[in-house]
Amino acid sequence: MNVPNQITVSRILLIPIFMIFLLIPFSWGELFLFGASIPIHHFVAAIIFILAASTDWLDGYYARKYNLVTNMGKFLDPLADKLLISAAFISLVGLDMFPAWAAIVILSREFAVTGLRLVSAADGDVIAASIWGKWKTVSQIVAASAVMLHNTIFELFSFPFATIMIYVSVILTILSGVDYFIKNKHVLVKSM
């Protein structure tokens, strides 16, 4: 397994660690940042989540720079993203910190595009991430991070940054899903 794929696997391995800190209510107290009170375990979870999410950029950069792009990487990278994002949003819904409707829209798109990728893979083709898919992922990471950090710096100005990012991520999720299906409709037509 090459280095970019190892970095991608590390993202997957960070998911349970992130979830432990997010979901287990450690009695470490509160952290006060920029007018917001954050349970310390949520802050630690957010840092681990952001670290895990940043490996998405790192593995892609390394793969392109050293010409190590593989079909396995094209498959594993979006899978790792989906696992990380799904774990975050499902956990946040369970904690009543994220709206269930938004998580349903986001996860439905993720399953639909994964299904499209699987149909394409059965024909020997790999669908790489699009620019819309990348922006969607960034917006989801920012939304989840802002929610985990309890809208920290923006709470000082009573600006609902986390809420706005939830809506932005839902819109970009829908747009990227539509883009994937339009660009790859031949995959569905071919498989019927």
Question: How is this structure best described in words?
Answer:
It catalyses: a CDP-1,2-diacyl-sn-glycerol + sn-glycerol 3-phosphate = a 1,2-diacyl-sn-glycero-3-phospho-(1'-sn-glycero-3'-phosphate) + CMP + H(+). Its main location: membrane. It is found in: Cell membrane. Pathway: Lipid metabolism; Phospholipid metabolism; phosphatidylglycerol biosynthesis; phosphatidylglycerol from CDP-diacylglycerol: step 1/2. Keywords: Cell membrane, Lipid biosynthesis, Lipid metabolism, Membrane, Phospholipid biosynthesis, Phospholipid metabolism, Transferase, Transmembrane, Transmembrane helix. Helix content is 76%, strand content 4%. It is built from 8 helices and 2 strands; from the N terminus they run H-E-E-H-H-H-H-H-H-H. A two-stranded antiparallel sheet has the order 1-2. The protein is mostly helical. A hairpin with a 2-residue loop joins strand 1 (30-33) and strand 2. It has a single domain (3-185), classed as Up-down Bundle (Four Helix Bundle (Hemerythrin (Met), subunit A)), CATH 1.20.120.1760. The longest helix is centred in the first third of the chain and has 26 residues, at 40-65. The protein is globular, with a radius of gyration of 18 Å.
